[in-house]
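Amino acid chain
________________
===
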Amino acid sequence: DREVAIKIVLSDFASDGDRLQRFEQEARATSALNHPNILTVYDVGTYEGSPYIVAELLEGEELRQRLDEGPIPLRKTIDYAHQIISGLSAAHEKGIVHRDLKPENLFITKDDRVKILDFGIAKLRAAKLEGSSLEDATRRAITNPGVVMGTVGYMSPEQVRGHSTDYRSDIFSFGAILYEMITGRRAFRRETMAETMSAILKEEPDEPTESNPNISPSLERIVRRCLEKKPERR
């Protein structure tokens, strides 16, 4: 007796092993979490060959929609950042890394609560990702989207290289989102996918104060710390 959201893998794709594996990972990861800043999953199952997840129905909008309107006020940015980190911390404590954190996967409810969505490519601590060269990773990202896990522009350097990832990869993605909330501009955005990936590896975004001179030095330090190229420095 409640309205819910249902996410379905169409039966046409049920034979796609990789797609089903990602769907099952989302179900396992999300249902294992119980946190006010993470989407609540009620049920997981299969109907006529189509796997599905039943989750709470949210009312509001994606963070992407807010960002499309420009920078978010600092007080609101800090509030959202606290909520995102709270949800991520709960996931990381259970050994779950999101690996695809981006504004499209952050939902702002009508009462201003942040919900982290889509753990579809989350990695449990026990899983291991085989390493590969940057050249291979770039080629696969262009020719077969989804092979290199994550969304270009919010991927960590280790994701771009196709290396193994842990919670520090989420911290980098969070830093890119925080930068965008403060400045209204993406930290790494170039004309092509390959140029964007190269920028993540080799370039630093403009100083946040150039777009928003009102931010505090401590907040700017947090952004810089999150966007360190080397995981051990984040």
